[in-house]
């Protein structure tokens, strides 16, 4: 049996599987290098900013206004570099990736060159013909019934998505493609989330990834509500196959915990207009490195702009506003490990 829980429980330990990358980051942390020149471990890749839903709390609403889409050839050239260097690529928003006119052919190309791909999709479109090409796929459901779906996502596509989820579960090899559901928690849907879990379990969804809504304070559940839900999830998992992940601690950490952001080079974002953004959450102070329509990703990644950005981010005083960022947990690990005095003793 596949242990899906390990994918979450040991996420920070993925660093052990990328020891050369960790060594390069430590060289920066210990001031032996100006920046980490190795490729990122993974990138978030936006094929298009066009979307077929209207989620009221969408954090990429500004990007959607541009209606940009990457050219197929530009995307495939970037894929070539990522495949050669073992970089994982998460196909996701801006918008809904499956509405890109070349979505299927781009994904087939990635599969042909043995690129490691993940997918975040809203599941409105039936993409079962390529679902098995992904290491993992997560479908953004965010509701437990049709009425709730319409309120959260602007249109009623609930039954359509549930039907497609069933198709995806049947089309993939569960040992090669982990299938999950994404669930943005709001004040409107948190009370009913437990209702959908048995259905998802029966469909053979592997996991549900729950996270409180971001950048919509009026819709944010309280910390007490989140802890109460976590207790219910733990009880549910005692008798179910499906796994449920709800992280609350990152909601309590502000400004990257006051640490230098040495782990920023673990990932980056390629946007649908070609821009390469260094940080996922730094919307208050965007760091754009270049554009893959104008230069190769490799050239952008090792540019003077990137080196200057690295110097900025490893300054602990530049972390104001860096909240709810998954990179913070990696910064804490690297910082804590670097200060161990007895490293030569087991």
Task: Walk me through what this model shows.
By secondary structure, the chain is of the alpha/beta class. It has helices at residues 4-9, 19-29, 61-64, 72-84, 103-112, 146-153, 158-171, 193-203, 223-237, 297-301, 304-313, 327-338; strands spanning 42-46, 88-92, 117-121, 136-140, 178-185, 207-212, 243-246, 267-270, 275-277, 288-291. The chain has a ten-stranded mixed sheet with strand order 7-6-5-4-3-2-1-8-9-10. The model has no long low-confidence stretch (mean pLDDT 92).
Itemize the secondary structure elements and their pairings:
Elements: H1 4-9, H2 19-29, E1 42-46, H3 61-64, H4 72-84, E2 88-92, H5 103-112, E3 117-121, E4 136-140, H6 146-153, H7 158-171, E5 178-185, H8 193-203, E6 207-212, H9 223-237, E7 243-246, E8 267-270, E9 275-277, E10 288-291, H10 297-301, H11 304-313, H12 327-338
Parallel strand pairs: 1-2, 1-8, 2-3, 3-4, 4-5, 5-6, 6-7
Antiparallel strand pairs: 8-9, 9-10
Short overview:
The protein is of the alpha/beta class. The protein has 12 helices and 10 strands.
List keywords for this structure.
alpha/beta; 346 residues; 12 helices; 34% helix; globular; 10 strands; 14% strand
Number of helices: 12
Q: Which strand order do you get reading across the main beta sheet?
A: 7-6-5-4-3-2-1-8-9-10
Could you give the count of β-strands? Answer: 10
User: Which sheet architecture does the biggest sheet show?
Assistant: 10 strands, mixed
How far is the N terminus from the C terminus? 32 Å
User: Shape, please?
Assistant: globular
Structural class: alpha/beta
- What is the typical, i.e. mean, pLDDT? 92
Uncertain segments are: none
Order of helices and strands: HHEHHEHEEHHEHEHEEEEHHH
- Helix share, percent: 25-40%
* β-sheet strand percentage: 5-15%
CA radius of gyration? 20 Å
């Amino acid at each position: 049996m596949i242990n899906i829980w390990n994918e979450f429980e040991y996420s920070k330990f993925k660093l052990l599987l990328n020891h050369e990358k960790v060594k390069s980051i430590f060289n920066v942390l210990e001031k032996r290098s100006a920046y980490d020149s190795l490729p990122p471990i993974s990138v978030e890749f936006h094929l298009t900013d066009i979307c077929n839903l209207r989620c009221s709390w969408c954090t990429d609403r500004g990007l959607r206004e541009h209606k940009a889409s990457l050219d197929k050839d530009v995307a495939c050239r970037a894929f070539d570099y990522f495949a050669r260097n073992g970089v994982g690529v998460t196909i996701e928003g801006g918008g809904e990736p499956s509405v890109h006119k070349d979505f299927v052919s781009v994904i087939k190309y990635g599969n042909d060159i043995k690129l490691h791909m993940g997918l975040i999709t809203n599941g409105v479109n039936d993409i079962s013909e390529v679902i098995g090409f992904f290491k993992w796929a997560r479908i953004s459901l965010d509701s437990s019934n049709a009425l709730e779906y319409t309120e959260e996502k602007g249109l009623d596509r609930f039954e359509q998505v549930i039907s497609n989820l069933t198709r995806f579960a049947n089309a993939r090899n569960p040992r090669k493609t982990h299938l999950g559901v994404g669930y943005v928690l709001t004040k409107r849907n948190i009370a009913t989330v437990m209702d959908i879990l048995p259905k998802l379990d029966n469909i053979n969804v592997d996991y549900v990834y729950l996270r409180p809504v971001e950048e919509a304070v009026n819709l944010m559940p309280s910390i007490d509500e989140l802890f109460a839900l976590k207790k219910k999830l733990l009880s549910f998992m005692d008798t179910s196959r499906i796994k449920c992940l709800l992280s609350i601690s990152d909601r309590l950490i502000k400004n990257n915990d006051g640490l230098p952001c040495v782990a920023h080079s673990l990932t980056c974002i390629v946007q649908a207009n070609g821009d390469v953004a260094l940080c996922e959450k730094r919307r208050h102070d965007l760091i754009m490195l270049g554009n893959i329509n104008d230069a190769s990703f490799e050239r952008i990644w090792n540019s003077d702009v990137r080196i200057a950005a690295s110097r900025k981010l490893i300054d602990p005083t530049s972390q104001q506003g860096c909240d709810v960022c998954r990179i913070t947990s990696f910064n804490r690990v690297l910082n804590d490990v670097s200060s161990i005095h007895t490293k030569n003793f087991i």
